[in-house]
Amino acid sequence: MTSPDSPPLVSPSPCPAPPPSLPSSPMPSSPAPSSASSLPALPSLPPTGDVMVLALGRKKQRVLIALSILPNLFLAFLLSSDPLVTLSPPHHCHLPGPPPSPEALKASLPWEKGGRPGDNGSLSQCRQYVNGSRSAAAECEAGWDYNVTEGLRNNIVTEWDLVCGQYWLVPVEEVCFILGILTGCLSLGFAADRLGRSKTLLTSLTLSVVFGVLVCVSPYPSIFIVMRFCLAAASAGVYLTLYITRLELCESSLRLLVTMMAGLMTVAGELLLLAVALGCQSWRGLLGAGAAPLTLFLCYGVPGVFPESPRWLLLSERSADMSSFTERRNSNRDMRDDESFTELDSEPAPSSHPHLSFHELLYSRNIWKNLCVLGFTSFISHGISHCYSSFRGDVKGTAPSFYWTYLLSVCAGGGAWLLLWATVDRYGRRGILLLSMTMTGLASLILLGLMKYLSETAITVFSVLGLFSSQATASLCILFTAEIMPTIIRGTGVGAVLSLGCVGRLTSPLMDLRNHYGYFLHHVVYSSLALLAVLSILLLPESKRKPLPQTLADGEQYRRPPLGRRRRDNVPLLATPNPET
């Protein structure tokens, strides 16, 4: 006889399910199908972003990461080719007859004083004597002769004679190109959050190929500038979408390594860009060599080749895309004892796109604070890089060669990525960002304060140090932003920080337009702001080995503890009871 308190016996035959208030028997005997089906479902946790990534499988995850890194090799051709395309070589007025000797040039061209300190002047590049008389000089009448020793033999400057009175078109093209990157980061970053990473990537790739072809066949400078603006916007969209998709495909232990590999791939593309430029010697062929390979990556739009980001799918809750994870779970249920597939059962109802509450976003103070600090740091680090590249020429009056400046900038970027890979996971994002920004400010202060007492070697060393640290700061700012911005606004947040970096870069063509007049004040302002950025970095949280936030509520939790927080003593023997309670 079984007592009323004993658990019910389970028989092989079907029997009614026990009431919910009574516990089920822990006996190892197998219950009947009807009993198991009538038991109440155990509460399951909603799937997390890391679970969705692991559901892809390790092999497929690494294949997708490799596919997201490869396009950076050719994006460098489109995003880093502006210095080669707009390089202005030495030139002078075209003189009739055979190539003139140096004595004939001195007799036909007036002498002009230099505009920079230490520059003794040179033969005029825009004027010539009239009828062989030294009493009167006029503008060039028969065009210009170019002495191309560096870069492309045929670029937009030499093809359309964008010198002297038409030189203002070169800074305008540079400004429009940077504004195109700014526009692409903002608009396509927002589109990646609302429409999805995959759709935005495919759209950006298509536009990059189309505008890349239109740039190569541009017949006039005005059409070229408009097409370059559109090409910059589309290429920036490809870069941004691949960046955040790549990060969302990684767990916390792989994020820095994968981002470093993508950065080194971009550095390799910039070095390959210079090699191709030396081989083809034409700006049309150079830009075509960057746009043509992007056609191959249009295959990412084929279903199954480059699927949507799992973390974005978790927010969007699309039934069609989530069914692939359900099918994979069902097919592996008998082969795996993995709780991650069980967690995928609790999927909410599908919707068209992630729901974003603008009212909640407006009052997300911590997210806005982090975004403002990182955007300000990105603005300073991108803007001050140009000061280090041109400091020697501004001070000594003798600008270094183009190859030296270009290779120094590219190698500094590669070295910065290696430094970040070796230190950031060990000492934290915030600590290394603080160190690199401090080095940037100190290099500027030493160059500005001791400018008259430093030799050329010392000026070169501190300029390289400042360039290296500023590029490390700029790269780490983007990674930091992508890690602490929630998935629902990650594209918009990273795009905003990249756009503020573009605003800092705008000072470079504006200084070129003014022939670097006022460079000292320009450098002083950026150095002062760099010291202010050092203090603001202290307000940032730490994202090392932390999961990527998904919602605005998750992003609000990424905050730095208050400096004056006092530790509480929770030892019971030392706790003093409150008599009022």
From TrEMBL:
Residues 1-44, 325-351, 550-581 are annotated as: Disordered. The keyword Cytoplasm does not apply. Keywords: Membrane, Transmembrane, Transmembrane helix. Residues 326-339 have a biased composition (Basic and acidic residues). PROSITE patterns: MFS. Its main location: membrane. Residues 131-545 form the Major facilitator superfamily (MFS) profile domain. It is a multi-pass membrane protein. One of its GO terms (cellular component) is membrane. Residues 32-42 have a biased composition (Low complexity). It is found in: Membrane. This is Major facilitator superfamily (MFS) profile domain-containing protein.
